[in-house]
Every structure is written in C-alpha cells, then in structure tokens.
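User: Let's play a game. I give you a shape written as tokens, and you guess the letters that built it. Ready? Here's round one.
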C-alpha cells in the first residue's frame, strides 16, 4: 500500500514536471524545437541517469498510459477537423496512410537489413517508424503560428490521424511472427484491411450514436457533457479493439462525426478535450523520457543517425511524392508534406511492444526508435516555419481574431453566432451598419478591431481587417456569405 508521504512526493514531482512543461512551451516555440521534444528531454532529465534520479522501467504501464493518451489525442484531432476539409483531402490522406506507411516501412527495413539486422527484425523496425505521429504533427502545426495552404494542412492532419492503425497492425504482426518464428505472408494485407474496416464501421456507428445521445439527452450540468463525450471516446476505442478492429481509427472517426455537429455546450466540450489532449501529450512524453537510458543510446548512435537520414531524406519524401502524384499536388506541396512527416510518441510506444514480448534485439530497437524520433523533431520539426515560408505555402487566410465570442447553452437552440473577416474588397467594407441590408432575425453582436472591442451601432463603419460577429438563423447564411464573404472557421 502506498504511504501518504509517497503519494505526496508523486504529486509534487508531477506538479513540477507539468509546470516546467507548460511554462517553457513559449521558449520552445521561439527556439524552433517542437514541444514534444521538450517534454521528452524533461523526462530524461528526471530519469535515473538525469538530475531527478527517478527509477522507472515499467514498459507495460507506459504502454497502457500511452495508448490511452493517444486515443484522447486522436479524438481531439477528430473533433477539430472540419468535414469539408475531410472531403477535400481524404483520398490523398488515405493513400498516404496505407500505401505510404507500407512503402516507408519497406525502405527503412532495407536500410536496417544493410546494417546487419535479420530481415524479420529489420521489417519490425521499419513498421515501428513508418507512420507520422498525430500528437507531433497537430502540436507542431498549431504551435508554429503559420497558416498553411488548406489542402496541404488538411492532408497532413488527416494522414497523421489515419496512419497510426496501419503501423500498429504491421508492428503487431511482425512481432508475433518473430515470437512464433513464422514467415511473413500476404495475410498481413488482408488482416490490415479487416482491422481498418471494423475500426471504420465502429467509429462511424459510435459517432452517430454519440451525436444522437448528445442531442437527445438532457443534462443538468455543463461539465457532464465533457464526461459523456469522454465516455463515448473510450467506448469507441475499446469496442473496436475488442472485436479485432483498429481502435485508433475508430476513436478518430468518432471524434470527427461528433465534432462536425452542433450540440449543447459544444464550445465547453471542445475546450475540455483540447486540455485533455495537451495533458495526455505532456504526460505521455514525460513518461517516455523516463524510460530512456542516455548511456545506452551511444551504442546505436551511428546506426540511428544513418537510419534517420534514410527516413527523413529518402524514404518519406520519395514515398510521399509517389503517393501524391495522382492527386495533382505540386512539387512544392509534395516536398513539404514529405518533409513534415514527424515521428513522435507512436513509434516509441510501438517500440515497447517487442520489449514486453521479449523479442530478440528489442532493447536495441527501442533505443534506435528513440534516436529516430529525436532526429525527426530537431531537423524536420525545427524547420517547419522556415520551410513553409521558403516553399511559399503560407495561406492568405485572414488572421485569427484576438478574442472570440460564443454562446454556450445546455439545450439545443435555434440560431448561431458566425464570424466574418472584412476584406478590403468585401461588399460591406467601409459601409455603415445601418446601410447594410441585414435580413430579419440577424443582429451584429460584436466587432473586433485589433485588440479593441466595439459595440455595433447603426453609425458604426466596418473597416478592413475587422472581425464581425453576427447572430443568425440557418436560412440567413447564404445572404450573409454573399454580403460579408465566407465565414471564418472556429
């Protein structure tokens, strides 16, 4: 039984590590290093060979915590992915997350085989590092402060949310093949298809059920809506996994369906899951950092660097360009998507599976994967902003407003708040509100001009780069879009 004093120490150390992670996030952004690398480094410093001296080597516990954290991160990613973006980028993202993952795995495996790894072990290593990481990509793109061209950003985020299942399936298959000393056969492709299909069916079904439940079930406290959506996410992941489907794909699709519908207390739910995803990411990377023994990394440093170069400069860009060729992506877009194929928690968590299964060379694989993730964070991850500008892929979308106006309700209500950015060529630019033919039932609620909030009146003139918030009914949207331009994404 844990003594109260031990519990207090655990909470104290956890509080210190979480505080440092949050407070130093700004410094990480300025230096150009992805946040997840900062969390990894903090975990290593707190570990047994760091200044913290914390003895921790529980791979099974880390694997379970990491899996839950990834489920929460993917659910949040789905909640924040607009359905129109999915329609625009789903075909390319699907090819990247299946054929692209397999192609990357094969090329990296060839490099590992050249270094003397047995072919089954080389294939296992290639499978582990084959997918980009949702947590790394989501946080790096959002923390960079840059707005990418919509198709590029959508493809990257969709791919990172969809490709984990294939890497997980391949890793499990190659691990079991090594344990049972069996050869790898074509059944893996069929097995992959079956698991993805089951995961997709469960994810969509639970998403539709969750949407119905949120709209039809009266809940007395706003915070309980977040509890309900959390339960739906766990249900989606757990059910899909138990019936031999991909839980990762399922939970992402469930979040996607729920997030693209209005339901009571929606803004509060989105904020809760955003916070839960960040907490999951911080805890996950801190824990993974604790597992690493820096002294062991020197033994595989050369191999790790060479395989990292192979992955970053050859495997990922080559496979990406070939996969995107049929979809009309420009060379610059393909190069960028290939470059920002960040690795993160997923490969490290997958590398725990061979360790727990006591596969030969498992610890060496784990250390190599860690080096590849770090290299990916420093080079591609640290240059995202520079490469975006260099390749001229910065979007001309309007900047985000300094503040946001929203209506929170515990019951479904008719009407919604829309935000519009006033371009210089907009039909209402420099017009007075009293002269704009707003339909009945539409009202201007707030104007944001830089850091100034303005109460809308008939004599208020709309200036370029204003953000205007309007309350309207669904049937008023076409006319408002004609007058003000396309609404801003929340």
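Assistant: Ready! My guess for every position:
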């Amino acid at each position: 039984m844990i003594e109260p004093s031990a519990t207090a120490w655990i909470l104290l150390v956890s509080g210190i590590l979480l505080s440092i992670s949050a407070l130093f996030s700004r410094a990480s952004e300025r230096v150009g290093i992805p946040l997840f690398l900062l969390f990894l480094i903090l975990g290593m410093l707190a570990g047994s060979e760091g200044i913290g001296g914390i003895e921790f080597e529980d791979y099974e516990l880390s694997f379970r915590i990491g899996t839950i954290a990834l489920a929460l991160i993917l659910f949040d990613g789905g909640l924040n992915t607009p359905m129109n973006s999915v329609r625009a980028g789903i075909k390319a993202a699907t090819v990247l997350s299946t054929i692209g993952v397999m192609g990357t795995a094969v090329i990296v495996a060839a490099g590992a085989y050249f270094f003397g790894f047995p072919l089954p072990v080389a294939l296992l290593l290639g499978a582990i590092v084959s997918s980009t990481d949702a947590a790394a990509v989501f946080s790096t793109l959002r923390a960079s402060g840059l707005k990418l061209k919509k198709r590029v950003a959508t493809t990257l985020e969709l791919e990172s949310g969809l490709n984990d299942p294939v890497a997980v399936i391949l890793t499990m298959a190659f691990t079991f093949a090594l344990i049972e000393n069996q050869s790898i056969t074509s059944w893996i492709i069929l097995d992959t298809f079956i698991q993805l299909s089951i995961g997709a069916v469960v994810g969509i079904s639970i998403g539709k059920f969750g949407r119905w439940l949120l709209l039809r079930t009266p809940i007395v406290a706003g915070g309980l809506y977040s509890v309900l959506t959390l339960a739906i996410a766990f249900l989606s992941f757990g059910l899909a996994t138990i019936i031999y489907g991909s839980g990762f794909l399922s939970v992402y699709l469930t979040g996607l369906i729920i997030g693209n519908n209005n339901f009571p207390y929606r803004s509060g739910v989105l904020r809760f899951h955003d916070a839960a995803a960040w907490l999951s990411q911080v805890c996950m990377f801190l824990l993974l950092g604790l597992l690493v023994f820096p002294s062991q990394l020197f033994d595989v440093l050369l191999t790790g660097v060479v395989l990292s170069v192979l992955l970053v400069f050859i495997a990922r860009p080559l496979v990406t360009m070939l996969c995107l060729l049929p979809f009309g992506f420009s060379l610059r877009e393909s190069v960028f998507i290939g470059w920002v194929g960040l690795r993160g928690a997923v490969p490290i968590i997958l590398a725990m599976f061979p360790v727990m299964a006591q596969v030969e060379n498992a610890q060496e694989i784990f250390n190599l994967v860690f080096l590849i993730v770090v290299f990916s964070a420093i080079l591609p991850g640290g240059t995202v902003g520079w490469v975006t500008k260099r390749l001229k892929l910065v979007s001309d979308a309007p900047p985000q407003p300094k503040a946001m106006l929203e209506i929170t309700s515990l019951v479904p209500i008719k009407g919604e708040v829309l935000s519009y950015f006033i371009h210089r060529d907009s039909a209402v630019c420099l017009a007075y509100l009293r002269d704009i033919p707003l339909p009945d039932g539409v009202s201007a609620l707030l104007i944001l001009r830089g850091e100034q909030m303005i109460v809308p009146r008939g004599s208020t003139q709309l200036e370029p780069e204003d953000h205007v918030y309007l309350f309207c009914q669904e049937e008023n949207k076409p006319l408002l879009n004609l007058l003000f331009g396309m609404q801003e994404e929340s």
